[in-house]
Amino acid sequence: MGTVHHRPDIAADSPRDLSRLVGLLLILPAVALIASLFVGPVITFLLRSFEGDASPFEQYTRLFGSDIYLRVLIRTLVISFLVTLTCLVLGYPVAWLLSRLRGWKLALLALFVLLPLWTSVLVRTYAWTVLLQRNGIVNSVLTGLGLTDAPLRLLYTDGAVVIAMAHVLLPFLILPLWGSLRQIPPEFRSAALVLGASEFSIFRRITAPLSAAGVGAGCLFVFLISLGFFVTPALVGGPRSMMIGTLVSQQALDALNWPFAAALSAVITAVVLMAMPFCRRLFLVTRAEG
Amino acid sequence: MKFATASSLIFSCALALAAGSAARAADPEVVISSTGGAFAKALQENFYEPFTAATKIKVVRVDTELPAQFARLQAELKTGSSAFDIITAGPADLIEKRDLLQPIDCAKLPNLAKEGIEGACTGWGIIRTLGGMVVTFNKEAFPKEKPSKWADFWDVKTFPGPRGLPDTGDREWWVPTMALLADGVPADKLFPLDLDRAYKKLDQLKPHVAVWYKSNDQAQQALRKGDVVLAMVVSGRAVGVMKEGHPIDLNWNQSIRDVGLWAVAKGTRHPEAAMKFLDFFLGGAKAHLAFANVVNYDTGNRSSLELVPEAERSRRIAYPENLKSQIVPDYKWVAENRDKLRERWNEWLLK
């Protein structure tokens, strides 16, 4: 999300031109790889959404003709938003702490943040089903402490989906946020303290605005990855916790209807593309005000 | 096109690795795809290895999930040839996905007449496993009267407790079918399914369903843990939990047929080896008995049934008394209405 307001002055002197050329050449393999193995296939796949027996818009007519697909799309957006919010609330203090720590303490905490990334999403989701089931650990503790009389229904709810997804995606928020918090010079804090600022006002006037770009990047990561999730909602969610990813996989694998799977994917891709500039503006404004 | 080429390339590489060797094209072999785990291991021990020993034809075993198998097959056929020779399919797949399959000449399978059950070869597939969706329950939850029919799912006074229903496999017709049976529709008047009536009936059941399981493992786990006390489960998995010693029992009454078949992939590179394997699979009563004991389904082999000890017969669907009330769906109707059925199911579940 880093925005460059002051462009480096590209003068016509030859060494600079040369380094630019070398730079372009160096990124060429990566660009070629992504273009040929990712962008190309994705576009080819999305174009299949215009395949149909009657008209090229057959898939889209079906999609917008029934309210299931739009309802699932809205649910997907709402769940993704809640997951992002949960990650932000849980992740900000951790990122802040990481930016303050040094040495082995930093290494240890960073390990705790990174460790889940090395475990399969499926394993982490199954762990949640063990924790949340009717006779699971959470319910045993709650009834054991006398807080509830009967086991609560925790598994197979939207709440379970949000918690389990937030757990899976937390590192994606913490890491960029940590990066931006670490760049705030510690002298700012000292200067503010000398000038008599309270901790709250330091947070409000220094830390929050200067970390806004990190918050934006982290939230965008989490939100975008959430939109495509289907394993976690399938395992810990209720029958209504259907997300657009579930429908895409149903169409691609069960129904073998690839044009319709492509149309569903195209709609979610369009939503993401429309959301991106909005997110950028939102966080740039916050930053400018700071 | 690029997508299909790339994915089939990657898949072919994976397949070569899975086979463990770059087999020369001249070597006789047959590539068989089925669901993995204990199931594939039982197939390997009882059929693949003896087949190789008898015919010198190597079996390349590919473990897949069924939907992924068809997606791969479709992708590969777009590029011309398929890596699979024999695949696993359901009865409706044989109609719905016919353009991915090759017809089977039943007359060229000598073991069919000798040992096959009636209808073991349909011309597009041969029966591999025979089971059914059955009323499964916790014996401790219902010490007096035991659930014995789908209507008992609605009788929450006599049979209180959380229910489990599938949100996997063929649920888009399994669940409406059981609802119509519960609502009193006679077995021979079920198809075409009256979906309005079925979903109206299901509306009443919905609040009592605690688990809509997404995999058979999940259903078994819910039964073991008591998360559900009454569930619709595929018979092999229900028997599996019973054998583990949990207080679970099943009732074969009104079971809804669930069949797994072998089918031949279109564009198979080893058509003769594939036919040889299918014929081999139809014979061998002892192998079928051993296989059935592991997977808890019956097979298309007639003679193996006579070898089952009397005491175990209550757990085997192929016995006439267990099979007599089985519902055999109109697969043609299911295949032709699959999109509609699936859409209706999603819509109802989201309500």
Topology diagram in text:
The complex is a heterodimer of chains A (290) and B (351).
Chain A: H1 14-47, H2 58-65, H3 67-100, H4 103-114, H5 121-132, H6 137-144, H7 158-182, H8 186-194, H9 199-227, H10 231-236, H11 244-254, H12 258-289
Helix pairs in contact in A: 3-7, 3-9, 5-7, 7-9, 9-12, 11-12
Chain B: H1 2-19, E1 29-34, H2 38-55, E2 58-63, H3 66-78, E3 86-89, H4 93-96, E4 101-102, H5 110-115, E5 126-138, E6 163-166, H6 171-182, H7 195-205, E7 209-213, H8 216-225, E8 230-234, H9 235-243, E9 248-265, H10 271-282, H11 285-295, H12 320-323, H13 331-336, H14 338-350
Parallel strand pairs in B: 1-2, 6-7, 6-8
Antiparallel strand pairs in B: 3-9, 4-9, 5-8, 5-9
Please characterize this protein's 3D structure.
The complex is a heterodimer of chains A (290) and B (351). Chain A has helices spanning 14-47, 58-65, 67-100, 103-114, 121-132, 137-144, 158-182, 186-194, 199-227, 231-236, 244-254, 258-289. Chain A has 290 residues and is mainly α. Chain A folds into two domains: 9-50, no CATH class; 67-289, Orthogonal Bundle (MetI-like fold), CATH 1.10.3720.10. The longest helix of chain A is centred in the first third of the chain and has 34 residues, at 14-47. Chain A is globular and about 75 Å long. The mean pLDDT of chain A is 85. Chain B is an alpha/beta fold and 351 residues long. Chain B has two domains: 2-129 and 259-323, Periplasmic binding protein-like II (D-Maltodextrin-Binding Protein, domain 2); 132-258 and 325-350, Periplasmic binding protein-like II (D-Maltodextrin-Binding Protein, domain 2). In chain B, 42% of the residues lie in helices and 18% in strands. Chain B has helices at residues 2-19, 38-55, 66-78, 93-96, 110-115, 171-182, 195-205, 216-225, 235-243, 271-282, 285-295, 320-323, 331-336, 338-350; strands spanning 29-34, 58-63, 86-89, 101-102, 126-138, 163-166, 209-213, 230-234, 248-265. In chain B, strands 3, 4, 5, 6, 7, 8 and 9 form a seven-stranded mixed sheet that branches. Chain B has a two-stranded parallel sheet with strand order 1-2. In chain B, helix 2 (38-55) links the parallel strand 1 and strand 2 (58-63). Chain B is globular, with a radius of gyration of 21 Å. Classes of the chains: A mainly alpha (290), B alpha/beta (351). The interface between A and B is medium-sized, with 29 and 30 residues.
